[in-house]
Amino acid sequence: MDKTTNSAYRTSSTNGGSAISAAAADIQKLPAPRPSPPLEMSGPPGSIAAAPAPTPPPAPSSSSLFGVMHNQYHPSTMTASPYDYDAYRMAINDLSGYRSSSSRTPTTTYKNSITHPINVSWMIPSWLNVLLQEDMRLPKGVRDLNDLADRERLPDLMTPSLEEALARAQQRYPNWRPRGNMGLCSCPGKKVRLDGPVNGRAKIERDLDLDFARLQQLGCKRVICCLFDEELAFLGSPFPQYLQAATNHGIDVVRIPMVEGSTPETFIEMEAVLDKIDETTKAGDSVIAHCRGGVGRAAVVACCWMLRQGLIQDNRSVIAWVRRYRTSKAIETDEQEFYLEGYHIWKTTNGHPAFAKHFEDELMLRRRRKEDFQLRARQAQELDIARAQRKAFQEEEDVEQRERELRVEAALEEKRLAATAPLPGQAFSASSLPPPRESMVPDNEFDFSLAASPVPTSLQRQPGQ
């Protein structure tokens, strides 16, 4: 790239998209891409020879700009390509923050593997993955990946290194391909809320074969599954069917099951999984980790991998990075943050077993305290629910009792009125009415002697009055 194009990069903040447009125009002047022959790597000692490259796909069209694949309703997903310069093209697109108009997610009530192909969030952007294709080291002048968050500095940091990396890679490895990446996604074949949307969240009914076919298309050769068999079955992807679908698409499955919101119990367990990830990425293939939604447990695996590679310097920064490229909800619990803090310290001590033992004991203690707290909270909640149910039952009983009393009173009133009503064809008469209350006293009980008693003298009428 000449000085004119390089200067256009430096003025990208003031000229809007002119820098990217100039870079893209300059890219078009490159020779047409050519397919790579079968890979016969003669790299450094210890490098893993990749399998023969598959038949290359057709050249990218204008609808899939520079090898960018678009979901129907999701942001574009970068995919590895066997073309020599496609990584450079993708780097330019990713540097520009390119998004197609189809990336705006409309409101929907139903999702499946066709309308919403499984979305993968890559932990290393394509423009950076080009730089890390040889030894996973960061370019000069960059402390860690978070230094690249300010896109105004990217032209000065990335452009020369990008050209050098491409030239060096093509000189050393004529059949060069980008290094494998790591991504996060939700569980393949997931089926939730089958009765319809809940709280604005759509019904999801995915297909295992279609999801694994898409992962294979994205260059994935290994999947890290963080779910137990019971949770896989609950999500509609029983492990035997899950494993068969993955095998049919040439994808290896590595399992590290964790309780939701939790972490592995030891660092050694995590290291064994990270070894498998490194083995795959060094061969130029990608790895994808998932849990239920690819947000909590799978994000822990991704954070540990980036810390181990030295791409991020501390645990807080790696959490910020994953939240930037996956979702702001990534790393869901304090326990997961604590585990990453301990893993970072453990790596700085070169895996000292004493620290690992101390930290793992502390982790288990915290986990037991958390479980006890959750148990007490659950018991208190159940007690409150029982009290509320008893109160509601008592109120219902009171209402029913009052209704019974009202029905009895209504029946008695109806019976009394029926007894006093005239027969059919009988004329109404006053004699049919009940006697007045005053005449209900029997005559033989009336004291007539009171009428014959003399009037007191004080009350008698005097003459002249």
Automatic annotation (TrEMBL):
The keyword Coiled coil applies. Residues 1-10, 455-465 have a biased composition (Polar residues). InterPro entries: Prot-tyrosine_phosphatase-like, PTP, Tyr_Pase_dom. Residues 271-337 form the Tyrosine specific protein phosphatases domain. Keywords: Coiled coil. Residues 11-25, 42-52 have a biased composition (Low complexity). Residues 376-405 form a coiled coil. SUPFAM superfamilies: (Phosphotyrosine protein) phosphatases II (SSF52799). It comes from the Eukaryota. Pfam families: Tc-R-P. Residues 1-63, 419-465 are annotated as: Disordered. This is Tyrosine specific protein phosphatases domain-containing protein.
